Amino acid sequence: MRRSSKTVFFVLAALWLAGVPVVSAQSVTDVPPAPAPVAASAPSNTLLDALACRTASGDLATLLQRLRRERPTEFTQTERQFSAPMMDLYRLAEPVLAWGHHSDAVVITDNRVLLLVDDSIEQAAAQLERALEDSRDAPLSGALDDFHALVVYPGEHAGLRQRTLIGCEYRMPGVSLLADPADAWRIPQP
Known about the structure:
Low-confidence stretches: 1-43
Structural class: alpha+beta
Oligomer: single chain
Helix content: 10-25%
Shape: globular
Strand content: 15-25%
Order of helices and strands: HHHHEEEEHEE
Mean pLDDT: 74
Distance between the termini: 53 Å
Radius of gyration: 16 Å
Strand order of the largest sheet: 1-2-3-4-6-5
C-alpha cells in the first residue's frame, strides 16, 4: 500500500476516534509515525517525547515530576484544571511543534499528553496528514503500538471548545500521568 493511502486511512482513524463519522478507518498502529517534534527553545526533550509517544513505559510514572524539574516555570502551576475527565492545562514560555502543529498550550490527563491547537478537528487532521506526508523520509520507528496511540479530538470543556487536542495516549493500566507526590492534596482519601 502506498504511503499516501495509509495517511488517508490514518486521518480517517483519527476522525473516527474523535467521534466524527467516517466511511472507513484503519488501525492507528498501522500508520507510519510522525517525525520527531522540534521546539523553538526546549530545555529538554521530555515534553516533546511525551507528545510524540516516545516516553518509555518505565518513565511514565515520573513524567510530571520530570517536566516540573526540567521546566519549572511552565509546569509548576496549572493555568486551568478540569474534571470529568481530570486534566490540567499548562502554558509554555515558547510554542513547541508536535504532529505538525505549533502551540504553547499543553494538556495532561491521567493517560494523555496533548497539544491544544486553535484549529477545528478537520483543520487539525489536514495539518496532521501534511506532517505525516512530510515525515516519510524520517519515520518515528516503534512509537505507535499497543501501549502508545496518537489521539486527535475536539476540546469539549469550557475554554477548549472550537479547539483540538492532539498528542499521545499511554495505555498503561494503573499509571496516572497526573500523579505526583507534590499533588497529593488533589487525590481524595478513602
